[in-house]
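Posting for a labmate who doesn't have an account.
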Amino acid sequence: MSLASLARGQIVAVAGALVLAACGSSSNAPGGAGGSHAGAAGGSNAGATGGSTSSGSGGSSPGGAGGSNAGATGGSTAGGAGGSTSSGAGGNSSTGAGGSTANCGVGPTIGAPGFGAPAQGGMGTSIAKFFGGDVTRDGVTYRFITNWWGQGWTAANVSYNGTSFTVANATGTSMPDGTPIGYPATYCGRYSENAAHGNCGLPAAFSTIDTLWTGWKWSSADTGQYNAAWDIWLGTATAFQSYLMVWLRDPPGRQPAGNNTIDNVTVANEPGTWTIRYGTVNARPIVNYVRTEGQDACEFEFNVMDFINDAQARSATTSGLTLPGDTVRAIAVGFELWTGPFTSVSSDDFYIKLTGK
């Protein structure tokens, strides 16, 4: 069993260590406010600590490249009917029937806002272990973090532009416990740094949410040991309590945290079939909805509340699926990377759209 990293980069100092053990369930105790994976204190500008989510050693079947140039699963700009950049039916630029419809997308999601052609703001590059910077997408503020919290990290070069970023290259080796070298990510809400970032409306209590849409497109021809995953933090207005993850890529040789699985799961109102893998990380529940290994999806739009409601409904008969909390504290997307080197792994677009009751 290996560790999955649900980490948070802490701006000022590392307060503890939390590991979303992929395959494993325990690790160091969580630190500070919402702390997460133990990283070194500080960072170049936004010194964060922590990684992001869970994974570990495990799966064995070869995973296809989920990238745009990869032959197996295509990429985020793959054509085909309804692709996000194609002229086919059901494209993502309109409201109503938007959703992920590229060849390697999960499938169309009725009512999704669509990606459109956003104006991205805030750009730069970083080779720092812990860097953070505010960025914008269509005027909404988010936060980008390099987040190389793993002890096995050695070097990386990352560029960012609004909610898109590219890991041009990264090197490092996963530790024996299975922790990745980091989780470069974009997020909004109260996540791994000391303060909340972004003005997307998070944190938000479940009772105040009508819909909480999020969409992400990514691409890479790299077929190595990295996932592509949402890391959603739940809890109360004052405390972080549980993790919900949605994996679009389950890499060869790694798997999400938790020892228990439920196969061939469908979620009401959402496309696709998932494997649920669940357990605990530092005594905190984690529930992962995971694409089958080798069936990478390069884009997806979904209502976060659909997955929360699905897990909570299943918890009536499976207590391990209980997600404590009444608030969505933060939503992040990014890549957990294990043993490299890695090249040209890109997050192409990401959004959060909250509509209140």
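Reply:
Got it, the structure tokens are right above this. Residues 63-121+196-251+258-356 form a domain with the Jelly Rolls fold (CATH 2.60.120.180).
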